[in-house]
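Duplicate of #3305? Posting structure anyway:
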């Protein structure tokens, strides 16, 4: 009996220890990424953890039972749990975001790495798209804003503010009541604003505002006319090629900020419409910027993603850019032939002498200092990749040096420059346009377009080239090409791997041509367009959306067609 009692005691002892081991408290550490079907991070996705079907409080000292993914799509969870729940597979993650399908993932014991009481796992989850009412609302508002701008029913800045604020107010009213109406959070809206572009524009506006006190722009107008000897065709050709070459090594926005006052001055002297020189200049800046890695933001994005070098871009893109520049010169002569005839001058030498007398450098010291600062800024622009520096940094640095010098020497009135030379309406337009584009990107519009390109191409290189270049061009004419290019990167990268013949990087060149040339299509298609038109408007020369498009959209189609044919023949 004693032996039986002893055995019963041992059985109970081991059973109890096993029970306590199974029920002991452990620490769970769960992390990972939430990705979309393109393997891009999904920010602000809501994650809940369930243990035994009960939601767990994931933030200490708060009532929330959920966490949100970061801007990189990452999440981290740490909670206390019971070992038996892990062993029985009763740990579940629920992931939800508007315009995605809700997903539940069960975590089993084998998913965890163990170290004492700590259990670790990394779980990456892919969410599938599912369109909610917010998609249709955001797309509708986006189209409505463009119609307001296109038909001049509202100033473009006011239209952009109205559209962006409408999306936010819907998010924080209907979106709070029902998550299906959530479009874009305030934090996401702020992060969608490209401050690099805003600060670059502001810095270059200040530099131009200071330099105009030297008379250098009027002097450039005189020299351009002197070289062309009164021939408007050659004057336009010289201007376009100068702008294109400059845009290849500076960014196209900076080039137009510097050259817009010159073109307006020339047109005023010749008594022709400033837009007969300004619009060709804008086209030249966007075309010329396509030739190099640093000439246009889409190229910088593509180069960073693929590792393609500066010379790769020059060798593959510059021949097409040169052909398109010749096409631009011919197109200008046809489109503005009547306008250029108005600018004929009988006494060319007399006008040249008159311009030489009127358009002199008025402040050589300020100009010398300004050119030195510009040299520093341009050097940083060209080498910004080496320094891992955003281009806005040297622009603001140069602007501050020049501004301070001008104010201290009393050659520049600080308040007058801030009020008149910084185009605040243009900067505000860009800010709210970025929010609008961020919203339609957030609800999945750009991803749907990218997916459509992938499915329609069906592995055919010719079809893929044509689709990518034309879809990129059309979208870039109406949507900022930076987020669209970023959205297309994984699609083009995948197609480049699976389509025979695409290893030559031809699809990347198609994306670059489409995104850069497409920016010429409308008045809001590229930053250079908006800035130039904004400066002209502030000086009393206003052009409508449709007038711009009447000239530019046809040229955009011509240049994209040239690039398309070139890629199909030579690749």
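Output from current build:
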């Amino acid at each position: 009996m004693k032996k039986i009692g002893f055995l019963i005691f041992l059985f109970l002892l081991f059973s109890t220890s096993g029970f306590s081991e199974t029920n002991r408290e452990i620490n769970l550490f769960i992390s990972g990424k939430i990705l979309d079907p393109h393997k891009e991070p999904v920010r602000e996705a809501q994650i809940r953890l369930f243990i035994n079907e009960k939601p767990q409080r994931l933030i200490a000292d708060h009532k929330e039972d959920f966490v949100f993914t970061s801007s990189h799509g990452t999440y981290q969870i740490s909670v206390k749990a019971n070992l038996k729940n892990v062993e029985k597979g009763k740990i579940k993650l629920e992931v939800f975001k508007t315009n995605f399908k809700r997903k539940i993932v069960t975590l089993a014991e084998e998913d965890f790495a163990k170290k004492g009481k700590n259990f670790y796992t990394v779980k990456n989850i892919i969410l599938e798209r599912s369109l909610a009412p917010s998609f249709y609302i955001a797309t509708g508002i986006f189209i409505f804003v463009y119609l307001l701008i296109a038909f001049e029913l509202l100033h473009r800045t006011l239209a952009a503010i109205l559209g962006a604020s409408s999306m936010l107010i819907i998010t924080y009213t209907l979106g709070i009541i029902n998550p299906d109406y959530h479009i874009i959070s305030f934090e996401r809206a702020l992060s969608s604003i490209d401050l690099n572009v805003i600060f670059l524009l502001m810095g270059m506006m200040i530099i131009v505002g200071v330099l105009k006190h030297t008379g250098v722009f009027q002097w450039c107008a005189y020299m351009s006319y002197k070289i062309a000897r009164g021939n408007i065709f050659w004057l336009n050709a010289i201007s376009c090629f100068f702008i294109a070459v400059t845009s290849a090594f500076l960014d196209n926005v900076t080039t137009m900020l510097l050259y817009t006052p010159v073109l307006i001055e020339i047109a005023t002297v010749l008594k022709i419409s400033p837009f007969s020189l300004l619009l060709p200049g804008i086209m030249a800046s966007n075309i010329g910027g396509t030739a190099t890695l640093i000439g246009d933001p889409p190229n910088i994005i593509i180069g960073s993603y693929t590792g393609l070098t500066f010379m790769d871009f020059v060798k593959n893109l510059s021949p097409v850019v040169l052909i398109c520049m010749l096409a631009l010169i011919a197109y200008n002569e046809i489109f503005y032939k009547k306008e250029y005839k108005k600018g004929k001058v009988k006494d060319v030498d007399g006008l040249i002498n008159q311009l030489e007398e009127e358009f002199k450098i008025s402040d050589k010291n300020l100009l010398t200092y300004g050119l030195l600062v510009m040299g520093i800024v341009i050097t940083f622009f060209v080498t910004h990749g080496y320094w891992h520096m955003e281009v806005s940094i040297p622009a603001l640095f140069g602007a501050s040096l020049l501004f301070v010098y001008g104010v201290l020497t009393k050659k520049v009135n600080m308040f007058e420059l801030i009020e008149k030379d910084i185009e605040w309406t243009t900067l505000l337009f860009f800010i709210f346009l970025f929010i609008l584009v961020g919203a339609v990107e957030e609800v999945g519009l750009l991803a749907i377009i990218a997916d459509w390109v992938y499915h329609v191409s069906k592995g055919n290189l010719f079809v893929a080239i044509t689709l990518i270049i034309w879809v990129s061009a059309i979208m870039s004419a109406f949507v900022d090409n930076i987020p669209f290019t970023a959205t297309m990167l994984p699609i083009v990268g995948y197609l480049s791997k699976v389509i025979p013949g695409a290893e030559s990087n031809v699809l990347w060149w198609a994306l670059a041509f489409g995104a850069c040339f497409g920016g010429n299509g409308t008045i809001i298609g590229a930053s250079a367009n908006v800035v130039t038109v904004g400066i002209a408007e502030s000086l009393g020369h206003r052009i409508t959306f449709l007038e711009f498009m009447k000239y530019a959209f046809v040229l955009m189609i011509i240049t994209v067609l040239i690039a398309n044919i070139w890629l199909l023949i030579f690749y």
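Confirmed duplicate; merging threads. The first helix runs from residue 2 to 22. The chain has three domains: 26-126, 133-192, 215-343+350-363+444-570.
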